Each structure stands twice: as structure tokens, then as C-alpha cells.
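Much of what follows relies on a compact textual record of a protein's fold. A record is reproduced here so that you can trace the correspondence yourselves:

. . .
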Amino acid sequence: MLIAKTFHDVPSKLDNGRPIRIFVISPVVPNYPQAKFPGIEIYQVTGPVERFAGQIASQGYVVACPSSYHEFEGPEAIPYDTEGTDRGNRYKASWQIEKDVAAYDEDATLSVDLLVSLPNCNGRIAATGMCLGGHLVRLSAAFDPRVLSSVCFFATDVHSATLGKGKNDDSLARVQKGDMSGKGELVMIFGKQDTHVPREGRDLIRKTLEDAEVACSFLEVQAQHAFIRDESSKGRWDAALTRSLFTFMMEVFDRTIGRDLGPKVDKGEKVEHVC
């Protein structure tokens, strides 16, 4: 499908109240002006994420891309050079320039609010993200029942609980309390050579999700951190693996929001053991 790009500046209430710019990439079907599509939110706006979002939109999804650091920056993508990387990390979890976890939550809520308000969105929503965005997807999936499925790529700071102000988030604690139990389907994808999320961290995330009986698929692949990033990847981009996992992600989205299945009814049926 063809795609079109636009943006919306949405007022925020937390921190300094600076509006958040949410970029929207939509499929376009000529001669069908009333077409409606499911919606996807994806974090944070960068060149690679915008291209990834464009591929999703071309499959028939309205994609919203919020600017996660609108409190401190304009909507332009932070570059992946040394200075840009340091600046992004400082915004993400710093004692000097702080963003509350509640402000990240608000960004997620505003993005979903925008999607469901768009005339070309049918209100069925999923989420995806990479690195910081992978963690933010966890927050969106945990608290917004409108998000029916989430696919998180190499989510950082989850195992260490170091996102946001004071480097002390409660994402895993909320999972333990049951905030994600009975919610939408979750997929967590990590590279086994990811130095940002070591084996002990991945094991902790997996165990916490399984103990809480979250509907989660947990994938570990032969890759490093940021293996999807097709720009300034520092030698880590794996295009073939990215293509394979994009197909996996789209199966999840097509199945969970690509069609209206009606409300979920859990009959408590056990899987029969057969050969």
C-alpha cells in the first residue's frame, strides 16, 4: 500500500507541559476515502524507526510515533552519533535532566488517544518499540486495556529498573502485582549477545512474566543489541534477521488486531496431551 505522513501536536499535562509531537504514518488506498485500519504505536522517532513504521503502515496499519523527549528537545530525531547517543541516555535516565516514568505513561496514553480519534483508525491498537521504546511498550501494555498486543525489541532498563527519574522504575514490580495478567499478548525479543541486557537480566524478565502468567512469547536470537537499526548500527545491524522478525511481528498484529474477533472468552480449557 501507499503511505502518507503527517503529525499532530498534542498538549501534555506533566513536566513542563510542552506539547508532544506525534507523527502519523497511514496507509492510503486510492478511491477509498473512508477506509479504516488498525493502529500501532511505536517509540521513539528516529530515522530507522520511521522507516520501520513505514513498512508497518504499508501492510495496512495506521502508525503513531510519539517524540519521547518533547520536554527537552524539538521533534527532530536525536542523531546516533556520540553526542546524540550521550544526550539520549542523559534524557532517558539522569539525575540532572529527568523525565518521570509517569510522563512516559502519559506519552503512551496520548498516542493511543490520538489513534482511536483518527477517522481512518478502527480503534484496534497494538504497540511496538526498540531499546528504550521496547521498555515504553511494556508500560503501554501494562496499563492501557486498549492495547491488544505488544512486540518489544531488546527492551532496555527493564531488568535493572533504571528508567526515568531517579533511575528507579517499577515495570517488573507491576508485572509481579498482576498488572499485565489477563491483558493483551506480549512478545519480548532479545539478542543473546546483547550487552545491555545480559543473560541474568533476560532470565529475570522471563521468570517474572511467566510467574505472573502473562500471555508472553519470549524470543532470544543470535544477535547483538540494536540489530534492527539500519543506520549507525556500529556493526550490529542484521538485515536478514530483521526481515524474519518483522514477519513474526506482523503475524502477531494480523492475528490480534488485524480483524475483529470480538471479546476474549477464556473457558479455562486445558491443552490436551496428544502425540
Q: What stands out?
A: The CA atoms of residues 15 and 103 lie 7 Å apart.
